[in-house]
Design brief:
Keywords: ATP-binding, Cytoplasm, Kinase, Nucleotide-binding, Transferase. It catalyses: GMP + ATP = GDP + ADP. The chain is an alpha/beta fold and 189 residues long. The protein is built from 7 helices and 9 strands; from the N terminus they run E-H-E-E-E-H-E-E-H-E-H-E-H-H-E-H. The strands form 2 sheets. The protein has a 5-stranded parallel β-sheet, sandwiched between helices. Helix 1 crosses helix 7.
Length: 189
């Protein structure tokens, strides 16, 4: 079975950017596309950035046991569909999941062999600036995300690896090293 890499951390820490850069440098690494109940942001496409589901359809899929993990975050639901993950890992390529801390914990229970990586911001002030700079959330949503971020940051020691995203190139190089080492360690001999 191909290696699964879980990348998590607080909202606004740069998970998406880091994963894009990581996949540019490790092209065999496939991205498992998560499902969400949030509306698409400008430029996002269904099935590419997320599987955008209505809250009702998401709840029905949870009831069917269709998710490896699912969580609510800032009033929206997110999850990894089993079929999506199975389709990608069955091809023999390593897969990366970009998920929230709640979901990472569920994956750890369901798949203890998955490599868990926590992305840390250089400071909470930097995190606040990134969230505000995105321009996708109002002040109340930014405050809610920061409140959640504080509790998530307290969980960072639960993870196999911690990568601080202070400098993009340094953080990406660290991630590439982790993926290469872990993939080599699990390769058949």
């Amino acid at each position: 079975m191909a290696k699964v890499f879980v990348i998590t951390g607080p909202s606004g820490v740069g998970k998406g950017t880091l994963i894009r850069e990581l996949r540019d440098r490790v092209p065999e690494l496939e991205l498992s596309v998560s499902a969400t109940t949030r509306a698409p942001r400008p430029g996002e496409a269904d099935g590419v950035d997320y599987h955008f589901l209505t809250p009702e359809l998401f709840a029905a899929r949870v009831g069917e046991g269709a998710f490896v993990e699912h969580a609510e975050y800032s009033g929206r639901r997110y999850g990894t569909l089993r079929a999506e993950l199975d389709r990608r890992t069955s091809g023999g390529h390593p897969v990366v999941l970009e998920i929230e801390v709640q979901g990472a914990r569920q994956v750890r229970s369901a798949m203890p062999e998955a490599v868990q990586i926590f992305i840390v911001p250089p400071s909470t002030d930097t995190l606040r600036q990134r969230l505000v700079g995105r321009g996708t959330d109002d002040d109340e949503q930014v405050a809610a995300r920061l409140e959640v971020a504080v509790s998530e940051l307290a969980a960072q020691d639960e993870f196999d690896y911690k990568v601080t995203n202070a400098d993009l190139e340094t953080a990406v190089a660290e991630l590439v090293g982790i993926v290469r080492r872990e993939s080599a360690a699990s390769a058949p001999r």
